[in-house]
Every structure is written in structure tokens, then in C-alpha cells.
Amino acid sequence: MANQDDQFKKVISHAKEYGYVFQSSEIYDGLSAVYDYAQNGAELKKNIRDYWWKAMVQMHDNIVGIDSSIFMHPTTWKASGHVDAFNDPLIDNKDSKKRYRADVLIEDYCAKIEGKIDKEVAKAQKRFGEAFNKEEFLSTNPRVLGYQEKIDSILTRMGKSLEAEDLADVKALIEELEIADPLTGSRNWTEVKQFNLMFGTKLGASADTAMDLYLRPETAQGIFVNFLNVQKTGRMKIPFGIAQTGKAFRNEIVARQFIFRMREFEQMEMQFFIKPGTQKEWFEYWKETRLKWHHSLGMGVENYRFHDHEKLAHYADAATDIEFKFPFGFKELEGIHSRTDFDLKQHEEFSGKKLQYFDHEEKASYTPYVLETSIGLDRMFLAVFSNSLVEEELENNTTRTVLKLPAVLAPVKAAIFPLVKKDGLPEVAKQIVEDLKWDFNVFYDEKDAVGKRYRRQDAAGTPFCITVDHDSLEDDSVTIRHRDTMEQKRVKIADLKDIINAEVDVKHWLQKMQ
């Protein structure tokens, strides 16, 4: 655990030091679980959003995008179930006065058991070397099977208790497992209570006539209430999807883990409207398609896994998460849910307006079923950033810190340096900046020795460094250096655009999904 914590602390301090993420209103001591994206962070976030949008909207001729507003008519949230059921089970420790999510305490307990399984695997791997078969070991080793059985029975019981709203049993489970306050070790717990996560606000000029509103806790409802508008104006035929990215707000009592769980965050969601009865096939299709999107970024296939839900929402008939290996273990990155016709039917009932689709081939109207893919943009940012940050031992016994961001997502694609600040070299370097900035986000730097400038760009995640030297004046060539391999090549100035493009072009990356 300590090692994980150290790694995570490095991620947080690197994000600040290199202009990716700042604590919100830091000069006033900040606001808990609210963060600002800095100059590099805003670019990385935008590039992730664009990468998702291109794959989701541009590459599918039956998916369109919208941008619905954060404020919605309050009845929306009554219909969606958020007013009555958007709750977290919370428990307080009487000694430390700290509040925790009961389900997270139990999941963290299970994660520790998973850590024991990992230790057994590592020991066996050491013992058997090349001959080690991990799958066989996991399915036959009695100790591992015992651990796995324990995890499964705990999570199944928790799922059933939460579904039945049996909060007393959730507390009983915490007591039986002897789960202690992570800070103080105290086991002096209160009862488990439900707490609604929506932020309320007012709309109107005077207190008497003001209407109670909520900041949206998810972006999906803006899609559902616009279903018919989009379908008719876009003449969309089922199956079709509506995608959207945007801010959502949740009054997370236990916001933690940096930008993993925040009170103000951004979602990238797509609701896919389908014919009832076809949801099983579409569920499998979107599971596979979304995993391919993640894999296309080359962040290690072993860092992703599916986790099927123990506890299904009352309206869902299937749900799975794509989990990613964050510095603090495997956690949810994206959800894929088969939501049946719950949402459209609810809005139809509460609004009194018909939200059905007329199928010309079947000559009949029906309420479509919905398949949802929903990913947190901030979590994706954290996945990309934490996975990319590495410390490398170099041959000359020095180390370098390098942020190996997928080149397609990197905020700055190339940094251009004159070798020295004289002899006409800055002029040539600045001309290269002028030419390249039409196509890429580029950066000019002339301060410090070239080696130092390389290191700075490595740590900031820039894929290419281009150095103009005295020979450049004679042969119109420059030295281009690759961030990941540190390999240096002499190339023509005229070829720079094509060389960079070959590495950072979205097409080159997304085609890996085909």
C-alpha cells in the first residue's frame, strides 16, 4: 500500500509542477475535491474529449452529438428517480468524527484480500519462473480460491443488502469484518444512513417566487428529454445514438483520490436507442467497442478488466464497468448499462408527452430500449496521466522523469529549440514555430542547456524536440528527438510536418480499433 501511496503522491505533485492540475482557489486554501485544469491540463483534457468524440460521433453515421444545459426542469429529476433514490450509504466514526461511504469501506476491505491474491501469484511466479501458468494457478490454488470465495460472498451480501435497503445489515457486515476507521483504527461506528447527492439551487428574482432547481448529477437526462427532438429533426432510424460531453455535479461527502472523485466533474456519455429484444447483442457490441477504444491508446491491455455489477439498478437488465488499474488499484473508469425502456417511459409518464418511435418497417410505435456508455473525463485524464508517468534508469546511472502520454493526446506536440541564442539560430527556430503552429500545438524554448530543455519537455510529456544548430543554416536540416526512445535523427525542415503528423494523427490511432 505504501508504495502505491508514494506513486500516487508523485502523480499529484507532478500534475501541479508541470501545469496540469491545480487545487481550485488555492490562494484561499482551496476547496475540498474541486480542481482546476491548468494550461497543459486543459489541452490534455480537450484532446481526450476530442478523441472520444471522433470515435463516438464522427466515426458512426448513426450517432449524433448534442449539448444540453446544466439546469433542467425540476420534474426531470423526479422522473429519473434522482430526487428519491440518488443516495450514498454513509457511516460515521464516533471517535474520529470522519464520515465514510459504507460500500467503499467494504470494497476497500475486499481490495486488501485481492492484494493477498496478487502476493500469492508473485510468489508462485518467482518459484516456477517460465513454467508458471497464471490462469491455472488462479483457478486451482486452494489459498487463492479461498480468498476469492471470501471476496465474492462479501460483495454478494453487500449487493443484496443495498438493493433491499437493509442498511442495518450493511453495518453488521462492517462489524463482522472488523473494519476499522482507516485514520484511527477505531471500530466505533454509527448506523448507516442514506444521503442525497444532488446540489440544490434557486431560479428566480425573489425568494417568494423562486423555483427550486438542481445542478444536474448526470448528463444522460438531457439526452432522454431530447430523444424525440433529435430523432425527428435528424430523421434518425433505430438503432441510433445521441452523445454528449459536459459537466455534472454531485455533493460527494467522501470525495477523495485527487480528481478520481470530485464534486464538479465532466462526463462523456452516449445513449444508444434500440429495438426492445436486441439489447443483449448491443450490450456485447458496446462492451467490445469501448474496450477497443481504450486499448487503441496503448496503455497496456493488462490494465483493463470488466467488472459485472453485483447490484443492478432496478431498471437495468445488464451492467458492467470497464475498470482501470489506477495507482490505488483497479477502479471504475467507464460504465456500460442496458437501461431497458425505463428512462423514456418515466419521462413520458411525468411529462404527459408521448416519447415513442414509429417504426416504418413494422408499421408500429414502441418505446425504444437504451444501451448506455458513460465515462468520466476526469477519471480518463487520471488514468492517462498516472499510467504515463515513469522514472527511467538511464545507462549513465542517472534517472529521468518522463510523461509518456499517448502522442495523440499530448498537450504540446513538439518543442523547438535554437542550440544557442545567437548566430541567427533563434530566427530559424521561430520560423519553424510559425510554420508548424497551423497544424500542431508547439512550444519555443531557448533557456538553459539543451539537455536541460530535453528533460523539461520529457517531464511535460512533449513527444518531439526539434533543435536548430549551426549546420541548419547550411543544410536546412534539424535534429529531431523522440521522447520515448531519446533517439535523435537529422531530418529536413520541410519534412517536419509529415514526421510529427505520422505520430500524432487521430486516424493513425483510431484505426487500431478496426
Automatic annotation (TrEMBL):
ATP binds at residues 250-252, 260-265, 332-333, 376-379. Its main location: cytoplasm. Gene3D superfamilies: 3.30.40.230, Anticodon-binding domain, Bira Bifunctional Protein, Domain 2. It is found in: Cytoplasm. Its EC number is 6.1.1.14. It catalyses: tRNA(Gly) + glycine + ATP = glycyl-tRNA(Gly) + AMP + diphosphate. Coiled coil: none annotated. It holds the Pfam family HGTP_anticodon. One of its GO terms (cellular component) is microvesicle. One of its GO terms (biological process) is diadenosine tetraphosphate biosynthetic process. One of its GO terms (molecular function) is glycine-tRNA ligase activity. Keywords: Aminoacyl-tRNA synthetase, ATP-binding, Cytoplasm, Ligase, Nucleotide-binding, Protein biosynthesis. Substrate binds at R101, E218, F265, E266, Q267, M268, E269, E372, T373, S374, I375, G376. Residues 136-418 form the Aminoacyl-transfer RNA synthetases class-II family profile domain. Homodimer. Catalyzes the attachment of glycine to tRNA(Gly). PANTHER family: DNA POLYMERASE SUBUNIT GAMMA-2, MITOCHONDRIAL (PTHR10745:SF8), GLYCYL-TRNA SYNTHETASE/DNA POLYMERASE SUBUNIT GAMMA-2 (PTHR10745). HAMAP family: Gly_tRNA_synth_B (MF_00253_B). Belongs to the class-II aminoacyl-tRNA synthetase family. This is Glycine--tRNA ligase.
